[in-house]
Amino acid sequence: DVDPHEVAVCSTGLIGVRLPMDRVTAGIAAAGGLLSPDGGEDAAVAIRTTDSVHKTASVTRDDWTVGGMAKGAGMLAPGLATMLVVLTTDADVEAEALDGALRSAVRTTFDRVDSDGCMSTNDTVLLLASGASGTVPDPEAFAGAVHAVCLDLAGQLVADAEGASKEIEVHVVGAASEEDAVEVGRSIARNNLLKCALHGEDPNWGRVLSAIGTTAAAFDPDRLDVAINGVWVCRDGAAGESRDKVDLSDRRITITADLRSGDASAVLWTNDLTAEYVHENSAYSS
User: Fold this and answer.
1) How many CB atoms lie within 10 A of CB 216?
2) How far is CA 7 from CA 10, 123, 124, in A?
3) Which residues are catalytic?
4) Domains of the chain: residue spans and CATH
5) Whole-angstrom Cα distance, residue 74 to residue 161?
């Protein structure tokens, strides 16, 4: 028997629709009978919904490991997202240290994923430690391993986003503060006109500027620089290198916005906006 207070419950589904508890309880019993030290991959497959692939990652240091699985392909935005992540470790780490390592890792990984700017009601990230290795790791090494696994899984979430044909990495540099950098990066990541342009392989840097302009970040419009895939198409708030130099044929795209207002920076991840995304979400409940 397991104390109910020792069970962490993760859930997903249509918002407002009650779960079929007869099927859920039967599934719990069936899953319990299949528990195995080698069942991690089966669990990762089982939690998929609109995911096209299951998502796992692990890092081993000396004689201890941090591993994890994730599900999520849409409604991916920080704060609340249709994202379930379970991390486990056999390292011997106290709850307070686990909490600190996880919060630090999530802040610059899952919280910086903004696939479609939409929030759901069910996001969960758990870190569970068994202590089975008997090893108490160096706190910095442990925190680094947790961050590496979170970063890997966050990248897999973006790569599997519903209908996406482009994976877009937004770098904001030269910001007055990290908060400014994140605000600008999020505004760029959520700009639907820009996402449509990138889907069409159009390096429309003006849409990057317009996204920056909607924020409260500190910057001088006449000092903004923007690069797309390494080509500085905007210098000092005006046209820079020829947009014809920008090759957007690859799935991966990098946008760099230099606010030239300080030394802070941030990286966020998003996707393009496609007809496939619209189709999948127009018929999701039917």
Assistant:
1) 8
2) 10, 17, 14
3) 82
4) 38-159 (3.60.70.12), 167-282 (3.10.20.340)
5) 6
